Amino acid sequence: MKALFAVSECAPFVKTGGLADVAGALPLALARLGVEARVLMPAYPAVAALGGEDLGGFDGARLRGVRAEGIDLLLYDDPALFARPGGPYLDEGGRDWPDNAERFAALSRAAAHLAREGVGDWRPDVLHLHDWQTALAAVYLRARPGGPPCLLTIHNIAFQGVFPPDLPPRLGLPADGFTPSGYEFWGQVGFLKGGLTAADRITTVSPGYARELTSPAFGMGLEGVIAERRAEVEGVLNGVDDAVWNPAADPHIPAAYDADTLPRRAVNREALAQRFGLARSPDAPLFGVVSRLTRQKGLDMLLDALPRLLDRGASLAVIGSGDADLERAFRGAASAHPGRVGVVIGYSEPLSHLLQAGADCLLVPSRFEPCGLTQLYALRYGALPLVARTGGLGDTVIDANPAAMQAGCATGFQFSPIAEGPLGDAIDRACDAFADVALWETMQRNAMAQDVSWTVSAARYADIYRELCAA
C-alpha cells in the first residue's frame, strides 16, 4: 500500500501547529504497518536546505526527493512562491501572503499530478490531503477521470482558505465547479469547501469533533456540507510520537522517570519553578499552559479565573504567544504576582518538555479543540490535564467525577459549560485532589498508562486506505 501525503507543513522541518506534528508522525507509524507514505510539501527555505535528488519538473516548478528524519519527502520547489522569509502563511509583519491562493493552488495541482502520474516507478494507491492548503487537489483530481481515491483530513475547520471569485481561471479550476455543490462558498472560492465536496472520504481528528462539525456552533458555515456527507465523515483521534514524548528518555528534562518512579518528577518541578521564577508550593499544584494565546484556546477565561487559582495557593507557568492583548495581560499577571505567575512569550520545544514533566496539572480551557495534542503529552508525562469538554479534549481525558473516582480510572478534570465559573470549579476540584497524595498519584499512573501513541489510529487510517482502494 502506497500513500501520498500532501501537506503545507511537516515537523520537525516546518511547524506552526498540530498539523505539522501529524504530518511528521503518522507516516512513520504507517510504515510500521506496511504502508509506504511519501510526504509532498513546499520547499520553504528551511526545507530546501535539505537538498535532495531532482525528480523532474512540471507546472513551472521542480520536484526534489530527500529522506530526512525517517520520512520520504517530495519537495515542491517553486522559488517564486515559497522561497521567501517569514512563515508558511504569513509575512514577517504577521500578514497573510497576498498570493496564498496561487501558492497553495499550485501545491494542490502538484498533489493531483503526482497522484495520477507517480514519481518514477512509485505510484500512490491513495492521496491523503490535509486542511485547506491542499484540499483543492481533490477538485483537480476529480476534473479528469482516473487517478487514485482521495481522503481529506480536517485539522481545524476554522481555517478554510476563502478567496475572491475571480480566481478560478487563474488557478486552473473547472468553471463548472463554481457552484454551491462545488468549491463556491458564499460567492467566493472556498479551498476547503471544494475539498469537502470532491474527496472520496473525510476524516477529522477526533470523534467528538466529527459530531460537533454538523452544528452551526462548530461547523463555521460548512456544517451543511459535513451533514450532507455524514456517511463519509469519520473522527480518528490524533496520536503523539511516543519516542519523542517519553519521560523515561527525554533529553530535555533533568530527571527521567516513569509511572513506577514518580517521586523523581519533583526534580523537574523544581527546575520548572526556578525557570519561571515561581516560589516553592509543595502543598498546592503548579498549573501549566503551553498554547497559542487566543480566545479560541480560552485563555481569556483563565485570566478571569486566575484570582481563584491564586486564592488556593497554586502557581501558574505559561508558555505561548498569540494575540497581543493576551500577551500583555499575561505579562501583566506575572508582574502583579511575582513568584506565583511566570510567563514566557514565544515557544521553545525543550521548555515545553520541561513544563510537561514538571507541572502538576496542565490547563487546556479551549472553547473548541478539534483534537489537541498538548493534553496527550500531559497524559504521557503525568501532568494531569484540566480541559474543557469539547472535541478531542472530551474524548481523551477521563474526568475525576465520583463514578470515575470510585472505579479508579480518572485521568484528569473536565469542565462544562465552557465559561469562567465552571473553569474555576474545575481548578478547585484539582486543588482538592492534589491535597490527597495517594489519589493524585493514582490518577497520574492512570494517565501515564493510557496509550496516546499512533498505534491504534494509524491502523485505522491503513484500514481506510484499504477500504477506499477496494471501493
From TrEMBL:
Keyword set, alphabetical order: Glycogen biosynthesis, Glycosyltransferase, Transferase
Pathway listed: Glycan biosynthesis; glycogen biosynthesis
Keyword Calcium: no
Molecular-function annotations in GO: alpha-1,4-glucan glucosyltransferase (ADP-glucose donor) activity; alpha-1,4-glucan glucosyltransferase (UDP-glucose donor) activity
One Gene Ontology cellular component annotation held by this UniProt entry: cytosol
EC number: 2.4.1.21
Residues binding ADP-alpha-D-glucose, per UniProt: 15
Top EC class for this record: transferase
Every Glycosyl transferase family domain range: 274-401
BP GO terms, sorted: glycogen biosynthetic process
Record field: catalytic activity: [(1->4)-alpha-D-glucosyl](n) + ADP-alpha-D-glucose = [(1->4)-alpha-D-glucosyl](n+1) + ADP + H(+)
Pfam families hit by this protein: Glyco_transf_5 (PF08323), Glycos_transf_1 (PF00534)
Function comment: Synthesizes alpha-1,4-glucan chains using ADP-glucose.
NCBIfam families: glgA (TIGR02095), PRK00654.1-2 (NF001899)
UniProt-listed HAMAP family: Glycogen_synth
Name this polypeptide is given: Glycogen synthase
Gene: glgA
